[in-house]
Design brief:
Length: 137
């Protein structure tokens, strides 16, 4: 029982040195791309972001709707960002790192949203899956 508790605590640890958030806490053999889990801090960060955005953080720009957003993120070069409108909100998605996450080629990004006088940020993860960029987190 003690061993299980120690392993559970280790699985919630911060990402390994040199890794950029969000980095999965449950990455291991047999872990699927869609079953990746993230730390409580990253989950709380996303909830705060959603609260500030008041449910409207998805780009409303025609060229960034649906799969086009993931494709645009996939094309980002280091340090580049995408600016977008989300109804009355303005936002950016900035590329933080190109990184391998397990077997996948991924891009860690930082979403920023500005709504009236409030702003928030959250980390995001886009990975190549079956030849297409997909938003994972």
């Amino acid at each position: 029982m003690l061993q299980f508790i120690l392993l559970s605590a280790l699985s919630l640890a911060a990402p390994a040195a040199g890794k950029v958030e969000p980095y999965p806490v449950n990455l291991g053999p047999g872990t699927g791309l869609r079953s990746l889990q993230f730390s409580p801090a990253i989950i709380a960060e996303r909830q705060n972001f959603n609260n500030v955005a008041a449910g409207s953080f998805r780009p409303t720009d025609d060229h960034l709707r649906g799969p086009a957003l993931a494709k645009a993120v996939g094309a980002l070069k280091s340090g580049a960002k995408i600016e977008f409108n989300a109804n009355t909100n303005r936002g950016t998605i900035e590329l933080l790192a190109n990184d391998r996450v397990g077997a996948w080629t991924c891009k860690q990004v930082l979403w920023t949203i500005v709504r009236k006088k409030a702003s928030a940020q959250r980390h995001g993860l886009f990975c190549m899956d079956g030849g297409n960029w997909t938003e994972i987190w």
